[in-house]
């Protein structure tokens, strides 16, 4: 009976982590560029009580092996495209058509990556994120610039007062990874490269036309509230039934203890 107590406890722990992940998804339903996460589970080792007999006289097809419960093995990132929401702000940029990331520069010029394209202009005319990280590839825009726009290939264009000439201020850099789920999440909508994600591959718009940039749009999260609520209900019921197993085993142990009374 003690085996079933431990098995049920692993189920409760697994579903607690599942609920934590679902809650994180729901909390980030309005986070720009957020990708929903999913917990993956595996069964634990089995305790073999009886091996099947194999002899000339008898071949038993199966034996007796009791499972020891469940464990979470990974929290995977679901990299599906979120809906593009129009904002009317030309500095808002969404990545459409692929799992690419903006390259931005953090403290100490550390390379970081994000799907959040809600960019701003700082006091010096640099294109930056909401947290002040420089957008890699974009150059300084002259004072008094207007009609700032990001082309589909990442080129930043603008005009200055007294001239209709379209000027360019660099080209926003995008990168792709072989395994984007392996990126390390560092908060503030930022990711850091890891060996698990593979090397960052620079995006070449001339060779990869499947990826485009959409100025005046932001990519919403790919969280579907209805799916998350259904998953939350399922996880809660699974947690409850595992707790019922513990209660049942406790009652059985109590009955066994009172046999001599």
Write the layout of secondary structure elements.
Elements (H helix, E strand, L loop, with lengths): L1 H26 L9 E7 L2 E5 L13 E4 L2 E8 L6 E3 L6 E4 L3 E6 L5 E4 L5 E2 L5 E2 L5 E2 L9 E6 L4 E6 L6 E5 L2 E3 L7 E4 L2 E3 L8 E2 L9 E4 L1 E3 L5 H33 L4
Antiparallel strand pairs: 1-4, 2-3, 5-20, 6-19, 7-8, 7-11, 7-15, 9-10, 12-13, 13-14, 15-18, 16-17
How would you explain this protein's 3D organization?
The chain folds into two domains: 2-79 and 223-257, no CATH class; 84-219, no CATH class. Helix 1 packs antiparallel against helix 2. Helices cover 23% and strands 32% of the residues. Strands 7, 8, 11, 15 and 18 form a five-stranded antiparallel sheet that branches. It has a three-stranded antiparallel sheet with strand order 12-13-14, with no helix packed on it. It is of the alpha+beta class and 261 residues long.
Query: Which range does the strand content fall in?
Result: 25-35%
Which stretches of 5+ consecutive residues score pLDDT under 50?
none
Q: Average pLDDT, to the nearest integer?
A: 91
Main sheet properties: 5 strands, antiparallel
Indicate the percent of residues in helices: 10-25%
Cα distance, first to last residue?
21 Å
Rg over CA atoms, rounded to whole Å, is 27 Å
SSE succession: HEEEEEEEEEEEEEEEEEEEEH
Features:
261 residues; alpha+beta; 2 domains; five-stranded antiparallel sheet; 23% helix; 32% strand
